[in-house]
Amino acid sequence: MDRFRKLFNKRCSVIGMVHLQALPGCPLFSGSVNKIVEKACEETELYLKHDIDGILVENMHDIPYIQSKYFGPEVTSTMTRICTEIRKLIPETKPFGVQVLACGNREALAIAKACSMNFVRAEGFVFSHVADEGFTDANAGLILRYRKQIQAEDVLVFTDIKKKHSSHAITNDISLLETAKAAEYFLSNGLILTGTATGHAADVQELKELKSNIDLPVLIGSGVTIDNVEKYISADALIVGSYFKKHGKWDNDIDEERLSRFMKKIKNCSH
Fold first, then answer.
1. What is the rounded distance in angstroms from the CA atom of residue 169 to the CA atom of residue 152?
2. What b-and-e string marks burial along 106-116, b requiring 16 or more CB atoms within 10 Å of the CB?
3. Over residues 73-77, mean pLDDT
4. For position 168, what pLDDT does the model report?
């Protein structure tokens, strides 16, 4: 928790999502890496204009997702290029992180190390699950050993538990709290609680249960809106993407008015 508070010093911080346009090799790739960079930088500048507490970059438009074992080198290289440009815009005091879909946890750590980033969002940290891109095996031991090997111990690893877009039938006898305790035991730096899908709200009772029983920071990873944010104010951070977009759809452009109203609301809730 001390390491988290050095990065995020507010009662409840807001992390804005930069959803990158499709990368080279993906079905929706536009043909121009420069345009991806420009778009990502424009969104970053909008977030900074409204004093967001942190920024998280993700290759959300790389649908349909593939597992990291099938990645080509273009994934890591292109995201490193983008994050390098974004890093130039973000003050050193503002937390900056990356997630690589799907389950590109080692790739995310490599990008974070190369671009002087502060945290990564990791899938599949403890216990296996079946996602829409296939089977994801537990990987805490692998990625934390890799973090040590590349001397990136200053990069925090925030971990999804019982994550969205996934079936957890094979671990149905393991509760959310047991999963959280396993992640804590396996040295997670923070837990991410989500709803069942992008834009779907997390269970408030599950948030209360985690906050009461776990010593790690708890982040809400989906479904936060201006209408329900009061329910999640006890979380240590809110990762917000869909709500900031036009009509609340993740694949639209950022709606600056929605962003502005949300940030004003969260400041009022935090006082």
1. 34
2. bbbbbbbbbbe
3. 97
4. 72
Q: How many CA atoms lie within 13 A of 168 on its CB side?
A: 18
End-to-end CA distance of the chain: 21
Asked if pLDDT for residue 86 goes beyond 90, the answer is yes
Q: What is the pTM of this model?
A: 0.95
Per-residue model confidence (pLDDT) at position 271: 59
Amino acid at 170: I
Say if residues 158 and 122 touch (Cβ distance below 8 Å).
Answer: yes
Domains: count for the chain: 1
Q: Which two tokens stand for residue 215?
A: 């010593």
The mean pLDDT value for 174-197 works out to 93
SS3 32: coil
- Token code pair at residue 3: 């390491």
- Residue 236 contacts by C-beta under 8 Å, 6 or more apart in sequence? 4, 8, 12, 13, 190, 217, 218, 219
Q: Going by DSSP bridges, is the β-strand pair 237-240/218-220 parallel, antiparallel, or unpaired?
A: parallel
Q: What is the CATH number of the domain that holds 74?
A: 3.20.20.70
Show the domain range for 45: 2-270
Average pLDDT, the chain: 94
Q: Give the residue ranges of DSSP H helices in the chain.
A: 2-7, 33-49, 73-87, 105-114, 140-149, 176-185, 204-213, 256-270
Burial-class residue 169 by CB neighbours within 10 Å (0-12, 13-18, 19+): exposed
On the question of pLDDT at 142 being above 60, the answer is yes
How much of the chain, in percent, has pLDDT values that exceed 90?
87
Q: What is the pLDDT of residue 268?
A: 81
